[in-house]
Design a protein that fits this description.
The structure holds 2 protein chains of 2 kinds. Chain A is of the alpha/beta class. Chain A has helices at about 15-25, 50-65, 80-90, 105-110, 150-155, 170-185, 195-205, 215-225, 270-285, 290-295, 310-330, and strands spanning about 40-45, 70-75, 95-100, 125-140, 165, 190, 210-215, 225-230, 260-265. In chain A, strands 1, 2, 3, 4, 5, 6, 7, 8 and 9 form a 9-stranded mixed β-sheet that branches. In chain A, β5 (about 165), α6 and β6 (about 190) form a beta-alpha-beta unit. In chain A, α4 (about 105-110) packs parallel to α11. The longest helix of chain A is centred in the last third of the chain and has 22 residues, at about 310-330. Chain A is globular, with a radius of gyration of 20 Å. By secondary structure, chain B is mainly α. A two-stranded antiparallel sheet of chain B has the order 1-2. Chain B is globular, with a radius of gyration of 22 Å. Mean pLDDT of chain B is about 85; it is low at about 500-504. Classes of the chains: A alpha/beta, B mainly alpha.
């Protein structure tokens, strides 16, 4: 049976949320200056408890206090998050339906799904970049190469022999591994698993050689020595893994990847509402409690310059181009 | 010594009033989820996850764990009473459980399911406490090749399940395998047999097909002319509520064997619990002096799989508690719950979070105790439900099934599909095809296909991996052995006939 985040969702919440929202619509027309006058629905296109969901919950929990209205998270899964994102694109653009998209739904999905029912740049108003989860190059603990340099040489010399695990087509681990492959100019065999759990199990069990994955699940395994990490694909080292060098330090500067998460609103949502939401998100990211929790997860919190809607629009544009270049020749 | 200190610590945590309350809520919700057809554990845990964010992490996880194993207790109820398995793990329970109910023995069937589950749960909890860490190696030793061979073994079990024609059983398994291939290809992501219906892109849900071919088909059959008499009979014949001394004597070895099988198979990530219940049933049928009783109301056919699925539900926590890797979807959600609380489980979770790990282990034993206390008195109420006139009962079953199916994906298409499968199921019943092998094929199909492809990807297309890896080779050998055993009775029968003739 499919078991890792393929077919699960919150069953009743949407119904209740829908009822609440329905009452709101009937009585109060959305006025930007009074916004928000009722609860806001935040669609998360992944299962509850996943990296994007956790980040969305931590940040929106604080945003709700600032806005004075509750933010209800609705987890809608399926087709790599694109089902939910398509639904968000078609939602009423009054600021009461938002989505926490990520690197996959709002960039890599463009080349991955030829019949995508939305376009990340044309169908959404960027609101705010939340936090990113760095990608690591991981390997089974007895994999021969000792550091990144040896790893690169080894993979290039033994492309026919090495196996790279990933968490399924379109997953962060899949697309970031494709990026690594295109930089190294190799095409190793990719072994697909149903989610990061089974992929990690295979890596710990030594069934596969290496994989690229988000920091969250990897930290405890690295610290326990059940797997090893070669490098982290961010410009700076991560406080959760101070001994793991950056890809730049390790001599692989081109490999830069972060599973970024950001809030988007349907196209046409009034600018004052976007500004209000953006300010609330920025305030959340400055809160000590929120920062502490995000850093514990190994997340990277964007600086002031990267937090504007314009910066997010630029990021989406750059990322769509980047992933299209990487994934188009592959598919 | 450490063990006792750890367990004492665990019980101190689990017995705090708040955690006891959480455990009770988990057990109650789990029972309810199991009883309501279609509403599965994954959907429920996903639904309740946000609520747990406001709770202390240990309490939250104790509750979620309670829902998970509690559903195994409740899951047998609808299997036995109305022939609708609520969970994949209680499909085989329906085979003999429902026949027992038809013979007026629903009470003993329900009671033995609860007793078997309780015993298995207690044993498995002790096993986690004592052998959790060493058993982890088993979970890690299982690579794609081993999984594939295990699934082959599982399919052989499916053949043995059949009480009628072996050929028809094989046809059903193959149909199940075909149905399981609907959806995205794991390697390329390309959509297969989905006919451009977006809801089919992620495949057919188990609940959708199970509710259709078991639930809706059974209802249509009951409403069919002639079958109504059958129902009245069920209502009149109800005898004792509790198992007799003979029932207990028959069930004891089945419960013991089911517990052992379930405990071992549960450790394997993925479909461990499902295979455990099928394997336990097959083992009983093979060991029985008179295998023909199976499928006609043999109490061992209820006791063994119910013990196995509950033991497996408990031991499936081992990879989570010792490695920090979730072995199935429900556990993945539990990891999510931990992450929200800032605990990312890993190999050191036992040392770093002793409260959590030992508290959960202790709570499982307490939870099992609560569940048997909840479930045994309920037997009387469930059996009384059979007295409700069918014209009142079937609409409620249909509605609960529809709600359950919808809640899995929030997709109306799933409900329509279940209706279509109901018609298919009715046709199958009328032509003496059994739905259980179909469902097993559907459950094992994806695991088998994916692991076959993974194994061959890793070996670069070399099929010999299945024989050169020892665990895989042993599993395939057992599968061959079982296949021979399945063919033997036919041979033996011929020999017996010859014998009888010469005697006469």
């Amino acid at each position: 049976m499919s078991w890792c985040g393929r077919a699960l969702s919150v069953g009743w919440l949407p119904v209740i949320a829908g009822l609440l929202a329905g009452v709101g619509v009937a009585t109060t027309p959305a006025k930007a200056q009074n916004y928000p006058t009722r609860s806001i629905t935040m669609i998360v296109p992944f299962a509850a408890g996943g990296p994007t969901d956790v980040i969305a919950r931590i940040v929106t929990g604080h945003m709700a206090q600032t806005l004075g209205q509750s933010i209800i998270i609705e987890n809608v899964v399926g087709a790599g998050g694109t089902t939910a994102t398509a639904r968000a694109a078609r939602a009423t653009n009054d600021g009461y339906t938002l989505i926490t998209g990520h690197m996959g739904t709002h960039a890599a999905a463009v080349p991955l799904y030829p019949n995508l029912a939305y376009h990340p740049e044309r169908d959404f108003e960027p609101v705010a970049l939340l936090a990113g989860t760095p990608i690591l190059i991981l390997a089974r603990k007895d994999f021969a190469p000792k550091d990144t340099k040896e790893f690169v040489d080894y993979v290039k010399a033994n492309t026919e022999k090495v196996n790279a695990a990933h968490a399924g087509v379109g997953s962060v681990s899949h697309v970031s591994c494709q990026l690594l492959n295109s930089i190294l100019d190799v095409k190793p065999v990719g072994v697909p698993f149903n989610g990061t759990g089974p992929a990690m199990n295979a890596l710990v069990g030594g069934q596969v050689d290496y994989m690229c994955d988000q920091i969250v699940n990897a930290v405890p395994q690295i610290n326990a020595g059940t797997i090893k990490a070669y490098a982290i694909a961010t410009p700076e080292r991560n406080p959760a893994l101070p001994n793991v060098p950056t890809t730049t330090e390790a001599g692989l500067p081109k490999f830069q990847a972060q599973a970024w998460n950001a809030i988007f609103a349907p196209k046409g949502t009034p600018a004052p509402i976007i500004a209000k939401l953006n300010a609330a998100a920025a305030k959340a990211l400055d809160d000590e409690g929120v920062r502490k929790r995000l850093l514990e997860l190994g997340s990277v919190i964007p600086g002031a310059a990267d937090r504007t809607p314009e910066a997010l629009a630029a990021l989406v544009k750059a990322e769509v181009a980047k992933w299209t270049a990487v994934l188009k020749p592959a598919s | 010594m450490d063990l006792f200190a750890n367990l004492a610590h665990g019980f101190a945590v689990a017995l705090s009033p708040i955690n006891l309350l959480m455990c009770l809520i988990g057990a109650l919700v789990g029972t309810l989820v199991g009883v309501l057809p279609g509403i599965g554990t994954i959907a429920t845990v996903a639904m309740l996850l946000p609520i747990t964010f406001g709770l202390p992490p240990v309490g939250a996880l104790i509750m979620l764990a309670g829902i998970y194993y509690g559903a195994q207790y409740g899951g047998s109820t609808t299997s036995i009473l109305v022939n609708i398995p609520g969970e994949a793990t209680s499909v085989v329970t329906a085979l003999d459980g429902f026949q027992m109910a038809k013979q007026g023995r629903a009470g003993p069937a329900l009671a033995i399911a609860a007793i078997g589950s309780f015993f298995a749960g207690c044993v498995a909890t002790v096993l986690i406490a004592i052998l959790g860490a060493p058993l982890t190696k088993l979970a890690l030793a299982f690579g794609p090749a081993e999984y594939f061979s295990l699934m082959v073994l599982g399919l052989i079990f499916a053949v043995v399940l059949a009480k009628g024609s072996v050929l028809k059983a094989i046809a059903m398994i193959v149909l199940g395998l075909l149905l399981s291939m609907v959806g995205s290809d794991i390697e390329t992501g390309v959509s297969r047999m989905a006919f451009n219906i977006p809801e089919l892109a992620d495949g057919l849900g188990f609940a959708t097909v199970a509710m259709g071919v078991f639930g809706f088909a059974e209802i249509i059959r009951n409403l069919d002319a002639g079958a109504g008499m059958d129902r009245d009979l069920v209502q009149k014949k109800i005898t004792g509520l509790m198992p007799t001394r003979k029932d207990m004597k028959d069930s004891t070895p089945a419960i013991l064997r089911g517990t052992v099988l379930g405990s071992i198979l549960g450790i394997l990530p993925g479909g461990g619990a499902v295979i455990a219940s099928f394997a336990a049933y097959t083992l009983e049928k093979k060991l029985a002096k008179d295998p023909s009783r199976f499928g006609r109301g043999a109490i061992e056919g209820v006791a063994a799989p119910e013990s196995a699925n509950n033991a497996a539900a408990q031991t499936s926590f081992i990879p989570l508690l010792t490695l920090g890797i979730p072995p199935n979807a429900v556990m993945a959600l539990m990891v999510g719950a931990m992450t929200i609380h800032g605990i990312v489980p890993g190999p050191q979770v036992m040392q770093k979070q002793p409260d959590l790990v030992w508290g959960m282990i202790a709570s499982m034993w307490i939870g099992n105790l609560m569940l048997i206390i909840i479930n045994l008195p309920l037997v009387g109420i469930w059996v009384r439900l059979l007295r409700v006139p069918y014209r009142l009962m079937f609409p409620s079953i249909v509605i609960f099934c529809a709600i359950g199916i919808y809640s899995v994906n929030n997709a109306p298409v799933d409900v329509v599909l279940a209706g279509a499968f109901g018609l298919v199921g009715y046709w199958l019943i009328k032509h003496d095809f059994e739905p259980a092998p179909l469902l097993l094929g559907m459950v094992l199909g994806p695991l088998m296909e994916e692991n076959l492809r993974r194994a061959l990807l890793i070996s670069r297309g070399d099929w010999s991996v299945f024989l050169t890896r020892p665990v895989s080779a042993i599993l395939l050998a057992i599968a061959m052995g079982l296949l021979v055993l399945a063919v033997l009775p036919t041979l033996r029968r011929k020999r017996d006939e010859v014998f009888v003739e010469s005697e006469g």
